[in-house]
Amino acid sequence: MMHANRSRLARVNPAVKLTAHLAVMLFLMMIADPITSALLWLLSIIVGVMFGGWTMRYIRKRIVPYLGFFLLVFWMLAAFGKGEHVLGQFAWFRITEEGIYHGLTIAFRMLGFVTYGLLFTSTTDTTQLVMSLIHQYRLSPKWGYGLLAGLRFVPLFQSELAQMKAAHKIRGFHAQGKLKSFARYTLPLFTQGIRKAERVAIAMEARGFDGSRNRTYYHTPVTSKSDYVYAGTLFLAVAVITAVSAFSGWLHWAWNE
Amino acid sequence: MSWKMREVVLTVVLSIACGVLYLGWSTLWLPISALIGPVGAEVMFGVWVVASPLIAYIVRKPGAALIAELAAAAVEVFTGSHFGLSSLLIGFFQGLGAELAFFLFGYKKYSLPVLMLSGVLAAVGSMIYSLLANGFGYYTPGVLAATFALRIVSGAILGGVLGKLIAESLAKTGILQQYEMMRQRRQQRGEGYDSVSRM
Amino acid sequence: MIPYLGCNNLSVRFYDAPSFTLQHLSLSIQRGEKVLLLGPSGCGKSTLLSVLSGIIPAAIEAEVKGEVTRPESVGIMFQDPDAQFCMLTVGDEIAFSLENRRIPRDEMNGRIEKAMAQAGLSVPKDTPIETLSGGMKQRLALACLLALEADVLFFDEPTAQLDPQGRQDVFTLLKSVSDTGMTMVFIEHVLDGLIDWMDRVILFDAQGRIIGEGAPKDVLTRYEKEMEAAGIWRPRLFPHTLEEACAPSHPLQIGWREKLKQSETRARSKGAVEPDIYTIRDLTIGYGKTNILEHVSFSLRQGEWTAIIGENGAGKSTLLKALAGLEKGKHGEVYFQERPIRKWPAKKLYEQVGFVFQNPELQFVTDRVYDEVAFGGRVRQWDEHVLTDKTNRLLQEFTLNAHRDHHPFMLSQGQKRRLSVATMLLFDQKVLLLDEPTFGQDAATAAQLLARLEERKKQGTAIVMVTHDMDLVDRYADRVIWIADGTIQFNGAPYDLFSSGASLPGLMRPLHYEWERRMRHDACQPLPFGSR
Description:
The structure holds 3 protein chains of 3 kinds.
Chain A (H helix, E strand, L loop, with lengths): L13 H15 L5 H18 L4 H7 L3 H15 L5 E5 L2 E4 H25 L4 H11 L4 H11 L2 H18 L6 H29 L18 H23 L10
Antiparallel strand pairs in A: 1-2
Chain B lengths: L4 H37 L3 H4 L2 H9 L4 H15 L5 H21 L7 H22 L7 H32 L7 H10 L10
Chain C lengths: L4 E9 L8 E8 L4 E5 L6 H9 L1 H4 L4 E7 L4 E4 L12 H11 L4 H14 L15 H15 L3 E5 L7 H15 L4 E5 L12 E5 L5 E5 L1 H7 L1 H7 L11 H5 L4 H18 L7 E12 L2 E12 L3 E5 L6 H8 L7 E6 L2 E2 L5 H7 E4 L12 H11 L4 H14 L15 H11 L7 E5 L7 H16 L3 E5 L3 H7 L2 E6 L2 E6 L1 H6 L11 H11 L11
Parallel strand pairs in C: 3-7, 3-8, 5-6, 6-7, 12-17, 12-18, 15-16, 16-17
Antiparallel strand pairs in C: 1-2, 1-4, 8-9, 10-11, 10-13, 13-14, 18-19
């Protein structure tokens, strides 16, 4: 489950935060050069350190492992991407200048996605997010509470999966091939899941839950000025970086090819 | 057609179960991609979209496919995964595609071809996302076409066909009696309490 | 007169069943009454409870004929502690009840605290539910029901998934709730600690008809034969109390003396000393900084029945898994037949060692009961005649022949358990490891399974079982290993453990040992009840 840390960012309304971060990610999808992408990614690190309560150690632990992913994405585009200025070629790998350019762009973009994502998940509490969706995004309580009820099953499924793998090993099932045994796992997992899901639904209704908005709430997240100040500042920073990049001739939009 | 609570919780729980299984699947993705590029990994694509045809097939309500994809993606958000937010976006595009297949038939047909179409359109939706977000437009036309083709086939088979297979084997255990899928079947056969008058 | 709670000429039929589950049932319950519904598995008690509480037809669909009366608000506690909640923390969960009742926000905290106090939950409001034990979860469930301020509370086997200590805690708690005059309706299988404060017991037969009702004492004595035939667990002590039973020549003492004698004889008999089949040396298992088991050493002999006991979380399951080669230790070694277990190839190991999981469904891999039993042989490409012969014999042995073509998931819980044991005996394994095999079963099913296991033991199979049932341990086990805090507290005969004068924290001695202790100390006082 997500838990909020103690930071300025944790106090921002979850729905507003979610929208703001998704908006930045969508904007990132429109940028087609490595430098602007990299700068926008660095912005997320700065926000994390200044408002998200991130320490250097935290960044090392959580972001650095994704550098491997960064390299993979870069490599895929560098070696398989289209381009004319070939730098090297062996087997079916073909490294081009354009490939490197695009590879870096997408790699930084992916890194940006991961970091803005982490910025969100490290400063938001699961229950508060669902409540915020119910109040700010008018999500029906039926789905909001239903979602929370279902989320409780994640650790259960993980432990059952581990047990099934053990059980199959004992029965010698893995001798039949990984794909078949994978398909075998789904049946008990899903059956158990469905049974428990029904019990949960019955229990919720038995306690007077009707899924309607005709209820009172223990948690009522609200939006305040500071939420919009955060969103606004974030967008402003993005705009400034983009302008600087345009001015320095680095900027490329995705639709200018 | 209002959703019953058990249908809501079933949708969430099955999507979550798929989400947990995905975690196991995705560890294979990384080394395969490095070796043969994006094309090779595409064969596995269908598994990522199996939740939507599966749940739509059982529950048979408008919106089921889209919600299933979003719920499976939501698992990643709520469990604090780094890929959470981008999963949401992916889930949205895939879900829209999957949903479209059922919409085109007025939410009345749930046969195997429709399920396969759902997988195909989910692949299309995901392809659109890949073009916009993952820079798939930067691959050579050959790579692009191969990726697209494989993704569509994988979506149809590992998404649509597998979804139906799972639903049918669940039905065999008798656990889906109260859901729309089995009710429609009983109505077709003219049996069951649905056709008996209640006092 | 219209009853406070009840039904008149009630008949219920489910959509996919050809016949009625309940037929022309009438009963009425007064306000403030505590009623226990008793009957064999599958007789329809749960269906009746669902109708009385309104779950049928509101949340579960079925054809309902007849009249049902109930007061305005009801609360239901279910047996699966995890499938009753929808929130992540204790406070939020109780608040959910209040939110549904549209209680104003500023009243909520006060009511939550009151409910928590009544249910004996002294944890912070933001405690995550997943960190609570089974017993605590049921306390939380009760708190949620109390917050509903219902007129009637229904309980559908609320302690079925708890260990004996948790069960007693919940019963004590519910007794205190009953003192407030609440109307309560129960379905339960384990009666000690519950039946003595019931006002009325209603006994059903296998077809869902009422064969008797009245005060608990009367029903138990008058229908003793029927209850035994139906496989209903009978209370160990009720309607007597331990105090009465300590009086000289009380009839219960005959049975107790016999049990003690048998247990002692088994403990003292040496018999032929069999070779060790397992040797565990200085085994430590853990992850990161925490250790589940530390420096555990012991040996198990061939053909021995060993019980592993201890509180939940003590490490029993981990130890059992280590014996199956499923857990790797940080250091130390598990030797199976004198070879380190990790050196055994999986295929060979599992021809010698069978493992029966607590949840039988997790190990099924086929669509037919017959195929399930035959699976191991098919994978090893046995000769078809040999395989058919063996499979049929196993199906007969475990009375599964009638279901040979059914899907494993369609069997009852008891049948599934028998099937999972049967699959593990195809190779006439030398060792059978079982994780709580009698958990949540009625007396008849459990006895059947234990009888099969005892037969196997006589043929030389070593049985190692994790269990909470101390009576089972006393009656069947040759050796008991008690684990607490990750180490072995006792390794020896059950008689020696239970009759020792030492206090056994977290363990509940079988009743006959409690009596013996009282006799020795010459002070007969009412006690909390024995095992189960």
